[in-house]
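// run 5 | inverse folding | seed 20
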């Protein structure tokens, strides 16, 4: 029972970390990355569809992203989705492909992105703390139902705290790496 609670908590904390990593991958740094646009929702037949399902995305140059739709009729839809996004990029449509030129980041934009990284890191930490609270509640419930002793509960709570500390540090590291990547000129 305790093992189940701990493994569930660890699984959910890992999920919070992977959501953060995925989130931060889509944040723009000084160089082009397909992760910037892969998950961009395109309104395809009134269904929000991730861009990577509608087009091949490549990096022909360090500051450029090329998007080649599998179906040429989606070109305008993709262009519209890019313009509506918060990427701040202007798509260049040549009739067959869309090219996104990434201008160098200004100091102000870098600071904005770092603030966004801090916000996302904090959200991930909150998610981890929520998992901790939920796991501790489950352990207390097990004790109330006389399924585990008070000592077992306390040891398990200590393990939950160790997991929380481990994943919180992991989240901090990920945030720091992304911040360094953004501030690198």
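// decoded
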């Amino acid at each position: 029972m305790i093992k189940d609670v701990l493994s569930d908590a660890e699984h959910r904390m890992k999920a919070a970390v992977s959501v953060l990593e995925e989130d931060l991958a889509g944040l723009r740094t000084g160089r082009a990355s397909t992760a910037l646009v892969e998950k961009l929702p395109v309104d395809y037949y009134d269904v929000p569809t991730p861009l990577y399902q509608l087009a091949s995305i490549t990096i022909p140059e360090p500051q450029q992203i090329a998007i080649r739709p599998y179906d040429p009729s989606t070109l305008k839809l993709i262009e519209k989705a890019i313009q509506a996004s918060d990427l701040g990029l202007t798509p260049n449509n040549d009739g067959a492909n869309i090219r996104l030129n990434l201008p160098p980041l200004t100091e102000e934009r870098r600071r904005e992105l770092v603030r966004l990284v801090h916000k996302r890191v904090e959200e991930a930490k909150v998610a981890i703390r929520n998992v901790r609270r939920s796991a501790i509640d489950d352990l207390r419930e097990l004790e109330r139902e006389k399924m585990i002793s008070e000592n077992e509960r306390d040891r398990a709570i200590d393990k939950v705290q160790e997991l929380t500390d481990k994943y919180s540090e992991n989240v901090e590291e990920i945030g720091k790496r992304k911040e360094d990547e953004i501030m690198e000129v």
